[in-house]
Design goal:
Elements (H helix, E strand, L loop, with lengths): L8 H25 L4 H29 L6 H30 L3 H9 L1 H52 L2 H18 L1 H20 L5 E3 H19 L3 E7 L1 H4 L2 E3 L3 H12 L7 E10 L2 E9 L12 H14 L5 E6 L2 E9 L9
Parallel strand pairs: 2-4
Antiparallel strand pairs: 1-3, 4-5, 5-7, 6-7
Length: about 350
């Protein structure tokens, strides 16, 4: 840790002003209440105070040497007591020697002897004040370091949790796709080849954006179209995917891979629970610095799929809470046999970067 006073010009200036004010008060007391001349009063005040100001700068190293182990208070007290006695005696001896050599005034010499005890008390007070100041600096810096470490730890844990949530998204879809490819290689090799290509593109995008980046909606939509193409190979033309995206929304930013669990959820509760064609609607617009995304699919409560675990939607809620501080950005509504998920993504500080 650098010297808290000598580390920059501003603290040196503040420190100098502090001791200058003490010197002015000291000289005023000698002039006003003890009737010494201004020259003697100022010389006495600025000699003793300047000496201690210089010595106090070195006391920082005494604090560093003695450490801040408050679990051993007796050892710390003893160490500083010895240091205080040595420092104050040296300060008083040097100051008295210099002033006796320069000032030739009988009244002042008598006053100097008379005030020795008071000066020593003031010296010990200066020492205690200086040491306390340095310990406050050490404690403050330690507290700041602890806050930084805790912030780093929270950030690391947050990133780890986001990665865990991301890792839960793809496996279920991947396993289903591989099973479908396995079946298609025998019955329809051409579709199997197309599905492998689509799946490769989808996984490449997933790996590219593995760091929870914010990406443009247009980029995310290309990936979700890829996902839908894969599902169409599995389920044929039963899936009808319609989009209504404004030009402003296309340039807005969203968390990468945020749509895949939504699309998977819509297919799971639509295609699996119905023998009819299933419509999926995706709408997006920017309103008041929020990208509002709405995904709807037809939903039959009476044919509710029992295969779902709720992982996809709960993951999205948790990701939004970690990224933006609240789950309120995700809303779910079921009305008139329509399952609707609405996600609002703040755009104020969104950039294409990692979280």
């Amino acid at each position: 840790m650098n010297h808290p006073i000598l580390s920059n010009k501003k603290t040196i200036l503040i420190y100098s002003i502090f001791w200058f004010v003490i010197g002015v008060v000291h000289s005023h007391v000698l002039f006003r209440y003890y009737s010494f001349s201004w020259i003697i009063s100022m010389f006495d005040a600025f000699l003793f105070n300047t000496l201690f100001a210089l010595i106090a700068l070195g006391l920082w190293y005494a604090v560093k040497y003695n450490g801040t182990d408050f679990k051993k208070p007796y050892s710390l007290f003893f160490s500083h007591s010895i240091t205080a006695i040595v420092v104050v005696m040296v300060w008083f001896f040097i100051g008295q020697t210099i002033i006796n050599f320069i000032v030739n005034n009988t009244n002042y010499t008598a006053f100097l002897r008379f005030s020795s005890a008071y000066r020593l008390i003031i010296g010990f007070t200066f020492y205690i004040g200086t040491i306390m100041f340095y310990y406050l600096i050490v404690y403050y810096n330690s507290l700041q370091e602890q806050v930084k470490k805790e912030a780093f730890l929270v950030s690391t844990l947050k990133e780890s949790e986001l990665q865990i949530l991301r890792s839960q998204i793809n496996p279920h879809f991947l396993f289903n796709s591989l099973n479908s490819i396995s079946s298609l290689t025998i019955t329809e090799p051409t579709k199997a080849r197309d599905m492998i290509i689509k799946l490769s593109d989808f996984m490449r995008y997933s790996l590219k954006n593995k760091d929870n980046r914010m990406v443009e909606l247009s980029e995310e939509l290309m990936n979700i179209e890829n996902y839908m193409d894969i599902e169409r190979i599995r389920f044929g033309n039963r899936i009808q995917f319609q989009q209504n995206i404004t030009a402003q929304a296309m340039k807005a930013f969203v968390p990468s891979m945020i749509f895949q669990p939504l699309a998977e959820n819509s297919i799971k509760h639509g295609v699996f629970s119905s023998s009819e064609n299933v419509k999926v609607w995706l709408n997006a617009d920017v309103k008041d610095d929020l990208l509002v995304i709405t995904l709807k699919n037809e939903y039959e409560e009476s044919n509710k799929s029992e295969t779902g675990t709720g992982t996809g939607l709960s993951n999205i809620k948790r990701r939004m809470q970690l990224l933006f501080g609240s789950e309120d950005f995700v809303r779910i509504r079921i009305e008139n046999n329509i399952f609707e998920v609405q996600i609002s993504v703040p755009q104020n500080n969104n950039k294409e970067n990692s979280f």
